[in-house]
Every structure is written in structure tokens, then in C-alpha cells.
């Protein structure tokens, strides 16, 4: 989130901030999806987790970042068959029950 | 004579106890002596509850003497994986985070075993928070496989399986989220049953993934597993996912044989990338079932290629959610590998989690279609043998893969669908490592799964040798 966005009036900052965060988060996911098999440089993996901080909370310490982003990228990579499944009207297997 | 008793099935021990040829105190002493001798080398136990076990054994001895016999578990020494709450006894979940937690209640499963008269020997070592498959625990040390002490016993109920295999308890209570009962059972040559989701209450078990966690027994025989399941199963108001249906008598049809039954042998997924010795052993087991009168039926199950992703999205999201408070306050107290998993759970998409939960219904339908043609399915439990402690890659046939991917592969479909599945030893590799077959059935049809497993195990068990404890090295520091 750049300084000019942070310095806007409070009422204006929040919707712009959310869109900016979502865009940055989307870019991060896009980077993961497009680079699923590549080995990240430490700088790239830090960028991914840092820009998702507004959504996902504080980034892991630097020593953990490569392992974390590496694991996420592996999972994203082998999620392709799952993402291609056409589930039609199927509902989740886990249902909320009112009491 | 003393050492032979610790390897006897519960049926034999129960008869000796009921007829007062052995007292619960005498039997307990034999297991405690064995734990004293072997645990320094195997590290199967985190906490041994010798004094409370002796007190319980004395009470049960009196009851049996007075003719107040509770049933086949009366006076039988068992262990419990250290993620089940035990009143007054430290419950660590294999973690530093809970290293000082002493619950003031018993998990339902623990309470039911004790109500049946089982004597609690202690709490077994496990993979930290059940979040792994090797039982290489950074806080309490690795558990060693009794068949090759340089190797892992599998996990996450590795301490339980190692203890049962090495005669350090008569049976154990484990949990299974992605194979954690069946994986160590296959690695250690024990019988491990993951019942249907909801068959056994999860109340009082530290969760890994609420919608994938199952509770079940690890034992030396199929009959013992059935006895334990009988004690464990049933409704529980404390667990909203526990089935309200009362369990049947699991012993009633156990010895009925399998003539005329259909055994489904999958043509896809379950025999891909498997060590040739394991595949040979499982195919040989299927031939044995045919010799016993069953009919082998080839089946295909759809959508299995999505299982790995489904399991990952569900487990990581649910585990990260559960551990959020501890991760905020004490992330540094987690082991490295568990911490990586918990951190990664924050970066997966909610939509992938929901899609995974929806896809479970699709997978259930795929298995239901297969079960239209067959009574049970027969598969390998594992595609590879357990690695040396510290190694994380295994050879699954021609494919080298991470031990987590390998060990989850054939197990997770039955966690995702909630279907019952049992691991039964079927022989040994040329290197002397146990091999397990998996028999899976329809929801709440543990009776059929046990019946097929019993018929097979009765044939194979004379050829299965107990662990040679004389070959254990001195305790490894």
C-alpha cells in the first residue's frame, strides 16, 4: 500500500485500501499460480507474503518464508485437477446444523 | 513365559484373567518391566503411568476375584496416544506448547476403555500435534521402528504402533486424519483400524483437522481391534459428529468366513508408483482371499487424482485455524516442519477449502458406485517402506517422492469419504520390514471390513513372527 493511499482521508482510505490489498493479494496468488514449479528467490518469496499481510496477517520470519511459499506453491500446483472439477449443484460435505 | 504373554492376543489374555490363571497385577508387571527395558531404545512412550496403573490393576483384580467381570478388556494393559485427554495425566500432543497441560477430564474414548476395565499404561509418543507421518518428534525424540530401529515407525500414532509391535502394551488408542493409524500399523506390522467418521467420539482428542479426524484402535490381531472398537463405538453428546446409531455386535459375524463375498481390487490410483515388493505382497494377499472363497472384482474409482489437493486444503486450513492463538503467542515453540504447515495454511484460498469440502461429496459418490459391485476394497496401505530417521524422501517404485506425499496417498481417500479402513499385516519385505494391506468398506460397515480382515489374518498370522527385541541396540542418546 503506497504512501499516497495511506495519507488519504479516513473515510476514503478504507475502500481504496481494501481494493489495493485485494489487488496485491490477487497479484500474489497470480505469481504463485504462474510460478508454481519455480524455485523462489528469497526476495520474491518475501514479496509474496509481505503483500498479503493485510489479508493473512504478519509474514513469517525470513528464515521460514521460502519453505512456506514453496509449500503453498506445491499445493497450488497439484490443485489443478481439483480446480477443474465441475461440481454442479453439489453442496459441501460439512453442513451447519441449527440448534 | 513372561515375555510370551506380552505377545498374546487379548482373547488369550482375557481368558487367563477371567479364569484367574493370571491376575491383572501380574500381567501389568510384565508389561511395565518390558517398557522399562525397551522404551529407552524405542522411545514409544512420553509418559508411563506405572503407579496409577498398579492401583487400577489392584481394583480390577479384586473385581475379577469377586466375579464382577466387565468383559474382554478387563485387566488388559493398554496405551493411549498422547493427544487424548487423560484426567490428572500430562497430555502433550507431542508438543512443547502443551508440555505442561494436565487435563481435568478424560477423552470419551479413554473413559470408555477404562469403563471396560482396561488398565492405562501410559501416553505414547507421536508426531507433534499429529501433523506428520514419521513420528520424528523434535521435542521428545523420534520413535524408532521395532523392526529396524534406524527407521521411522510411521506416524502420527507411531509410538502406539511401536509399543503394540514390541509388546509394550496389549493394544493402543490412536487417531487418523490422513492415515495416522494405518501408516504406523503398516510400518510396524500391527493391525490398525480407522472406523467410519463419527463411529467413535472425538471428544477430548486434540484436533488436527476436525472434519478429517478419526479415532480408532491399534492392536495385534483383528479380533482385538474388534473388541476395542466395541468398547469405543457409540453415540456421545459431547461430540456433535458422533453417530447416534448404536454399534452392532462386531464379534457376531467375525468368524463367518468370506466365501461368496466380492473383493474389489482397484485398477486405477492404488497400484500406481508402488514398490514392487509391496505390490507383490498385496496381490498375493488378494490371491489368498480368492483361495478363501471370495471373488476378486476389478473396480475403478473416479476423482482420486484430486485427493491430495482436497486433503491439503482442508487439513491446512482447519489446523491453522485451531492453532491460531498459539501461533500468535508462541510460534517459536513449534517444531520447524509443523510451523511451516501452520504458516502455509494462512495463504490458501477459502474458495479452495469450500471446493474441497464440496468435492468430498463427489468422492463419496464415486466410492458408492464402486461398492455397487463389491463388498470391500483391497489396496496397499503404503507405496514405499519407512525411511531412515531424518530422511524425508522415499522410493515408491520408480518414483522418488516426499514421505508425506507417499504415505498419505492411499490413505486419504478414506479420510475424505469417512469410510472405514483397516491395515492388516501381510508379510515382510526381503529386508525384514512389515508390509500392510488395506481393506476398506462402506460407511458404518466395520463388521464386513473386520470379517474380511479376520479371515485373511487368520491365514497369514502363523507366518508372522514377533519382533526380535534381542536385536535392539542400546538406548540411542
In terms of DSSP E residues, the strand content of chain A is: under 5%
Shape of chain A: extended
Span from first to last CA of chain A?
43 Å
Biggest pleated-sheet summary of chain B: 11 strands, mixed
Topology:
The complex is a heterodimer of chains A (99) and B (477).
Chain A: H1 3-6, H2 10-34, H3 42-51, H4 53-56, H5 62-77, H6 80-84
Chain B: H1 2-5, H2 10-18, H3 24-42, E1 45-48, H4 50-65, E2 77-81, H5 108-115, E3 119-124, H6 158-165, E4 171-176, H7 182-188, E5 191-194, E6 214-219, H8 222-232, E7 262-266, H9 276-291, E8 295-299, H10 307-330, H11 336-344, H12 350-370, E9 376-380, E10 393-396, E11 399-402, H13 403-409, H14 412-416, E12 421-428, E13 434-440, H15 446-460
Parallel strand pairs in B: 2-3, 2-4, 7-8, 7-9
Antiparallel strand pairs in B: 1-3, 4-6, 5-6, 5-12, 9-13, 10-11, 12-13
Helix pairs in contact in B: 3-4, 6-7, 8-15, 10-11, 10-12
Can you tell me about this structure?
The complex is a heterodimer of chains A (99) and B (477). Chain A has 99 residues and is an all-alpha fold. Helix content of chain A is 65%, strand content 0%. Chain A is extended, with a radius of gyration of 17 Å. With 477 residues, chain B is α/β, with parallel strands linked by helices. Chain B has an 11-stranded mixed beta sheet with strand order 1-3-2-4-6-5-12-13-9-7-8, with helices on both faces. In chain B, β2, α5 and β3 form a beta-alpha-beta unit. The two termini of chain B are 31 Å apart. Classes of the chains: A mainly alpha (99), B alpha/beta (477). The A-B interface holds A 29, 49, 52, 56-57, 60, 64, 67-69, 71-72, 75, 78-79, 81-83, 85, 87, 90-94, 97 and B 211, 240, 303, 305-306, 308-310, 312-313, 316, 339-341, 343-344, 346-349, 352, 354-362, 364.
